[in-house]
Specification:
Blueprint (H helix, E strand, L loop, with lengths): L1 H12 L6 E7 L2 E6 L2 E5 L4 E7 L4 E6 L2 E7 L4 H10 L3 E2 L5 E2 L1 H14 L2 E3 H16 L21 H4 L5 E5 L5 E5 L3
Parallel strand pairs: 6-9
Antiparallel strand pairs: 1-2, 2-3, 3-4, 4-5, 5-6, 7-8, 10-11
């Protein structure tokens, strides 16, 4: 197994790899320590996880460049801590993240939100979850807590230019209205 992972990361990075230690695996998602650096495999490509400690900002690096930057997210050391300890960490938005949720957020951001803050990524994930749940009208609205977030950024409910807007019922439940273009 380790030799398969070693070959995978050598192919992806183009450099020799001495050791690969899997830290978390869920379906196609794999978080691994590769020669001391954190890498995230999303099923199709590998990203080295970097961070900027002043914001903190999480970077997904690939091919010598930044594939995704998630501002105000997690430092690489925080991600490693969550993977090794099994503990949850709290984001700047107040949401609790276990390592699985962190990895899913990073994969989602790499594909759909390449330069965003964590609140925006959480909002986009919440919209996708509402669509999965069928929460597309006041009658089918859900509690925001059911979406795994404490709140959804106002930018998803105030902009009239958005094709998907988050609206709220009088009792505080949320649903997504999808406007035809």
């Amino acid at each position: 197994m380790e030799s398969d992972l070693q070959a995978l990361f050598e192919t992806e990075s183009g450099i020799p790899v001495r050791s690969v230690t899997p830290l978390y695996r869920e379906g196609e998602i794999l978080l691994a320590d590769v020669d001391g650096d954190l890498y995230l495999w999303d099923g199709s490509c590998a990203y080295r996880i970097g961070s900027h400690p002043y914001e903190p900002c999480t970077y997904l690096l690939r091919g010598g460049g930044i594939s995704a930057a998630i501002h105000n997210a997690f430092e690489a050391d925080t991600i490693r801590f969550a993977a090794e300890s099994g503990e949850t960490v709290r984001s700047i938005t107040g949401n609790d993240y276990g390592i699985g949720r962190i990895c899913r957020l990073l994969v989602f951001a790499a594909k759909d939100c390449p330069d965003s803050d964590i609140g925006y990524v959480e909002g986009r994930i919440a919209i996708e979850k509402m669509k999965e749940l069928g929460a597309t009208s006041p009658e089918t609205a859900v509690r925001v807590s059911e979406l795994g977030v404490r709140g959804i950024s106002d930018r998803f409910s105030r902009s009239k230019k958005r094709t998907e807007r988050v609206l709220y019922t009088e009792d505080g439940r949320a649903y997504v209205r999808i406007k035809e273009r």
